[in-house]
Amino acid sequence: RDDARLALIEELQRDQDPRLASLVIAELDKVPYDKLQKMDLRISADRLLAELASMRGYPFRATRVLLLGLDGSSAARTKITSYFDDAPTWSAESILGAYAAAFIEIDGAQAVQHLANRFFTDKSQPQGKLDQITLALATHNASAGPELRNAIERAISLYLEHRPEAGATVARQFGTLSDWSQADNLLDLMSTGKVTNVGQLIAVSGYVAQAQRVSRFEPEQAQPLGFSKQPKSFQRLDDTCAQGSNSACAPSTTGD
User: Fold this and answer.
1) What is the pTM of this model?
2) pLDDT for the residue 16
């Protein structure tokens, strides 16, 4: 049934009727991100940009941003990457997570490094913004290749070094997706003794315990504890763009 529904959505993208166009966006909003990545998406970046700039496009803004990331055109790249020139200075932003996911879709591991250095090392960033970026990392980690997964693991390690109290958030965000790849990061965090809040400790230890069970009984589903691909480093990630604008860490071609 899901496959038939997705096929119908793909077909409806061809229709120029504005009412159907709105219906398609509303339906795409319900599609999990890993399935969106595999769909034959035909909504142009120009149309998505125009809708984002209009009141009509306010509903499902996050979905339109994700679609821009998947479009990957020059116009889409410009919109997504330029967003992060100013986003670190904003006190709050409701669709930061969508922009972070789109940025990662476009620039992969380099985008992860940029996000980690601009947000995770900044003590002034509100927790709500960091939660959104963590969710974007968790969302991508499920389908990521080795390079991107390694970058995400290093970013989470850096995050926990700067904000040990975020361990519970990491456990929830990744655990909700049944992704147990951050067990080593969280085990390292527990060993430091920096998690003192009982509720946070329960969340972190629960995640680690579940990761141990999964690695024991379903080894193909998880990265076993103690088998990280490379040693952890709590140093700032090498990213020459961290001090400057987003153009320093993104290719010159850009888009909305």
Assistant:
1) 0.81
2) 66
